Each structure stands twice: as structure tokens, then as C-alpha cells.
Amino acid sequence: MEMLWDVYELFSQSIFLVLIVPITLPCLAGAIPGFLERRRRRQLEEALPEVLESISSSIVAGLGLQQALTEISRTRQDETGKLLTQAIERSRSTSFDAALAEYAINSRSILIQRVVNLLSTAIEQDAPLGEVTNSMSIEYDRLNKLINTREREMSGQSFLLLMLMCLLLPGVMGFMFAVFGLAASGAYWGHIHNVMMPYLMASAALSVVISGRMLGRTKQALWWVPFWSTLSAVLYMGLFEAIQSGMA
Questions:
Q1: Does pTM top 0.70 for this prediction?
Q2: For 35-50, b where at least 16 C-beta lie within 10 A, e where not — what string?
Q3: Where are the alpha helices (DSSP H) in the chain?
Q4: CA gap 110, 102 in Å, rounded
């Protein structure tokens, strides 16, 4: 009970913290589906070159596009295989082109939708699908490598920015104000909390937005603003109060 009271007093130091804490958990719940959806989409996109290569090999061996996709759907047990299986089953009640378009829409991937459009155009123009899919496999493999390389580089920079602005900055501020403003020595700096808390929370929020912009996911990053802002403020206040109590 005493611990809960201490937490309540910690939060009551700032009206901004009191207002933002209740929306932190709902925002986290909103952030998780976006994270899972992007992970699922990237898995589909990374499997795309292998799928195109398999289609090319099957067509060169004398199979049609529908037969090639049916074989791929049987051998793959991942999300790509599931979507292709649904498309093949759907083609039995509609047309194969409509089922293929439905697969592209269900993937929710611009890359996959572009590939399906290219395949449809190649079929309409009676182009050699074996050569087309082989060339597409090579190009999309290169594209995936470029995307993954950029993702790794930007993720590292984005993570460093969050660590500096959301953890290191409030930690340093809390430590400095607590050590150089001990209540026991008559130099208590607690009055500065009304200025520092909004500043640290705004800095954390801006860092999250910039981090999301670096990764090309600004809208998804907005869901994380309350979490990082709360974490920054709680770290600052918790460190300040802990040092004050320990050195009293």
C-alpha cells in the first residue's frame, strides 16, 4: 500500500504526467497490431523472390502459372503458402485472375500488388512468363536487400536517438538536480519539476516522431509517444526522489 502511495505521489508531481499515464496502455495496445502487421507484410515481401523463382522454374518445366502457384501453395507452410492456398481455392468459384488479385489485396503489400499487376500484364501480352518471373525474382531480391540494409541502418540510428533523449537525458537531469540540490543542505530544487517534466516529455515525444520519420513509419510511431513520454518523466522523477531519499 505504501508503494502505491509513493507511485501516486510521484505521478502527482506533474499534471502532464497525470493526464498522459491513463492513455499510455491503450496507445500501446494500438501500436502492437501495426507492428505485427508490418512484420507479416515484410515476411511476405521477403518470400517474393523465392516464389517468383519457383514460378519461373515450374513454367520452364512446362507447367502453367496456376499449376505453378498450386505447387508452391502445397510446399510452403508460411503466410505466403496460406494466402496462395486461399487464392487457389477461391479460383474454383471465380476466375484465376480474380483470385490472384484477391491474394495481392490480402497481402496488403504494395510490392506484391505490383508483381501481380505485372504478371497480369505479361499474360495479356503473351510474354514469356518464365523469363519475366526470373527477371522479377532477381530485381525484387535486390530490392529486399536494399530495404533490409536501410532498415538496419535507420533502426540503429533511431534506437540511439530514443536512448539519448528518452532515457539518458532525463537520467542525467534527475541525477544532477538531486545531487546538487539536496533538501538536507537547504538547496532543494523540487520547484523546477514543473518546468522539467513538460520539457522532458515534449523532448521524448519529438524524438519518437523523428525516429518514426527516419524509419518511414511516422503514423505508427505516434502510438508510442505516450509510452516514451511517461517513461522519460518517471525515470527523471524516480531517480531524483531515490537520490534525495538515499542522501538525506
A1: yes
A2: eeeeeebbebbbbbbe
A3: 2-11, 15-60, 65-75, 79-91, 96-107, 110-124, 129-162, 169-179, 193-215, 218-222, 225-246
A4: 13
Cell of 19: 493526464
Backbone conformation region of residue 113, classed left if phi is above 0, alpha if psi is from -120 to 50, else beta? alpha
Cell numbers 535507420 correspond to what residue? 154
All three cell numbers of 112, joined, read: 506484391
Q: pLDDT tens-digit profile of 229-245? A: 989 988 888 888 777 77
- Looking at this protein, which amino acid is placed at residue 170? P
Q: What residues contact 8, with CB distance under 8 A and at least 6 apart?
A: none
Q: What is the pLDDT of residues 140-159, one digit of tens each?
A: 899 889 988 988 889 989 99
Pick the closest to residue 98 from 120, 76, 125 (CA basis). 120
Nine-digit cell at 202? 515534449
Query: Could you tell me the three cell numbers for 243?
Result: 537520490
Q: CB-based burial of residue 55 (10 Å sphere; 0-12 exposed, 13-18 middle, 19+ buried)?
A: buried
d(CA 192, CA 179) in angstroms, rounded, equals: 14
**Residue 89: per-residue pLDDT:** 81
Distances (CA, A) of 132 to 53, 54, 60, 69, 143: 10, 12, 11, 15, 16
Does residue 166 or residue 94 have the better pLDDT?
166
CB 98 within 8 A of CB 116: no
